[in-house]
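Something for you to look into today, if you have time. Could you write out one complete protein record for me, on any chain you like? The space below this message is yours for that.
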Amino acid sequence: MADSTAAAAEPGEPEERPRRHDTREAVLFGGVYGAVLASSMVAALTQYGHSSAGSRRYDALWLLVTAFASALAHGYAHYIAERAPQRRWDVLHTMRDEWPLVTVVLPTVFLLAGAGWGWWPPNGVEYPAFGLNILILFSLGLASARWSARSWPVAVLIGLVDALLGVIVVVANALIK
């Protein structure tokens, strides 16, 4: 029997497929990346005080485009980095695994688009977006710690550290403006 750490399979034995990320890992990585991306994009797009309804619709669209582009780039980078023989459609499977990154930006897209459609005032919508993404980061940290059987105090601490990533974006936004 071949060593499981061998780079190539022995003749006659099936190829070992590259390790796929489990769903929890994908949700954590993609979720944290997506929440920080959403906060950063909102900060960048509102830097110059453009807060009309039209600019909020534009911001929502750009956030969605950026999330899809980031997911495609991240998935493709995983595909290229595997350096193992791969089947033709493995690239699509690898990119499909990036769904958490896109999914986690959708609430921010909804906030921006809602402001663009007149559901709430477009001026200042970035602050609820920041708060929402900080809450998402905290929730992801808390959930991942609990999935790992950490105690509640440790899980809350990990959630707070994750939320700190969002706070850093907010502070940077305030300093840059």
